[in-house]
Backbone:
């Protein structure tokens, strides 16, 4: 069976097991593959991803999405970083196709995968000892420094692990910045009160990231958005509140008509401080 077929088969078994529970089943633990199986799955995924990257470069965005999806199908569902990268790439394709909603959804899934990855790192304090032969040879002292083993070979492994962890942290921050930029743009383009507010929050998150993570062109976009979004949000809020009041008035007229009344029998006054409305009878 092909590596991607193994992954799909195990995913189906996990889903069937979850569906067989009658009383509030807990989410099943992700299926763990052997190192050999995992390597084969990632090899398949990387090949599909490379092909998708070429399709993206040649502006074949729909085909790129399908190919990224195939790459995703081969990724074990516990490898959150690889999932986040592919979801962020799919979001970029949807942006090119001006499919703002799909771009928002895919960028959000990328960020959710990174959040899960951060949660695991926080709860475990990094890699588990059983996952790294040299993990037991390092420890954090009371001053926050990393103590290295006296054995030179163990020390070399520890230093290599520290460097690898630092690179992975940088990679996670970089992908998070890309996913945030893509979701912020999609939300801004999709428009509407909620989306514009979400875009502002994304741009605010981006503005707090280290400058090294954002190209100067993206920094300019972020700064411009932080200036232009607040008035757009206010305008969208006013428009949607007006539309809501119109629908409520139409509903009210339908209810009041049998009694010879209409909403014109009442007056609505806006509270400028809260943005809400009060209702009273017209004299």
Residues:
């Amino acid at each position: 069976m092909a590596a991607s077929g193994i992954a799909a088969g195990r995913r189906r078994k996990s889903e069937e097991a979850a569906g067989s529970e009658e009383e509030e089943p807990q989410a099943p633990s992700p299926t763990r593959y052997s190192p050999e199986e995992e390597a084969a799955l990632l090899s398949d995924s990387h090949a599909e991803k490379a092909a998708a990257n070429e399709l993206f470069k040649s502006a074949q965005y729909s085909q790129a999405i399908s190919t990224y999806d195939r790459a995703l199908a081969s990724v074990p569902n516990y490898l959150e970083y690889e999932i986040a990268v592919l979801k962020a790439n799919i979001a970029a394709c949807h942006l090119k196709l001006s499919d703002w909603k799909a771009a928002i959804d895919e960028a959000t899934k990328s960020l959710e995968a990174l959040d899960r990855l951060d949660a695991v790192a926080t709860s475990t304090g990094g890699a588990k000892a059983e996952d790294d032969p040299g993990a037991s040879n390092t420890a954090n002292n009371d001053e926050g420094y990393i103590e290295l083993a006296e054995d030179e070979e163990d020390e070399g492994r520890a230093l290599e692990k520290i460097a690898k962890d630092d690179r992975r942290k940088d990679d996670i921050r970089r992908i998070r910045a890309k996913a945030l930029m893509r979701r912020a743009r999609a939300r801004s383009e999709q428009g509407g009160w909620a989306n514009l507010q979400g875009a502002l929050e994304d741009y605010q998150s981006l503005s707090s990231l280290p400058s090294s993570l954002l190209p100067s062109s993206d920094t300019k976009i972020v700064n411009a958005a932080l200036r232009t979004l607040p008035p757009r949000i206010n305008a969208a809020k006013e428009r949607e509140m007006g539309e809501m009041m119109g629908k409520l008035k139409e509903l009210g007229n339908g209810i009041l008509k049998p009694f010879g009344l209409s909403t014109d029998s009442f007056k609505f006054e806006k509270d400028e401080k809260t943005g809400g409305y009060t209702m009273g009878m017209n004299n």
